[in-house]
Amino acid sequence: xxxxxxxxxxxxGGSSGNGRAICIGLARAGAKVLVADQTEVPREGGLPxxxxxxxxxxxAAKFFLCDVSRVDDLERMFIAAEDLGEVDIxxxxxxxxxxxxxxxxxxxxxxxxxxxxxKSVLFASQAAARLMIxxxxxxxxxxxxxxxxxxxxxxxxxxxxxxxVRLLSYALADxxxxxxxxxxxxxxGIMNTQMNIVDDQVIGTELGESYLPMIPARRWGTAGDVxxxxxxxxxDMSTYVSGASHVVDGGYLRI
Length: 255
What we know:
This protein is of the alpha/beta class. It has 8 helices and 7 strands; from the N terminus they run βαβαβαβαβαβαααβ. It starts with 7 loop residues before the first strand and ends in a 7-residue tail after the last strand.
């Protein structure tokens, strides 16, 4: 029902998990998609995202090798995206999670998570804004987390980065709104992706099963659930939606 024909999207971390589903969903809705990641190989296995998209919709997707913690890579990413068309949509999806209790926290892990989870969002948004402002339009979607809305012991780095993404997004929405650019946050809950299977071992564990009764939807989230919200926020159906966090957690937080 949503038509993104004629639009071009950039998605960071687009090879795996939520990013993979977002890229495929945007392409199915008609957008051209630049899949930016540090590898084409999906963490969950299977064909690369660009191959899946282009097998169904020829020439709809392009892969760009990118280290999102490097500002020069982010700037080159948008140069590559312009080969597909004028960039209308940016999804800052790339993110990492490494659990460390406070007393075991290290500067190296902290800095890496800040670089990937926060710095990349700011400078990718800056590069996108430079293209979007002259055109008077654009949608920037930043993938946050319910971890950016509620603190949990053992996740000090991750909580800090995702909380930063939320407030950064609100500031961007205020600054870019007069230029016709909307900025929103999508905050996933416990999703059936490698982050909650491998990085934070919840799904498939005894601990994880104890969480299910706390989720009113009584199921884990899927990458498709996140993609659907992103497609809505990328579309003209959300032209008066900006500066907000959109929680996709099956009702877990209930806020």
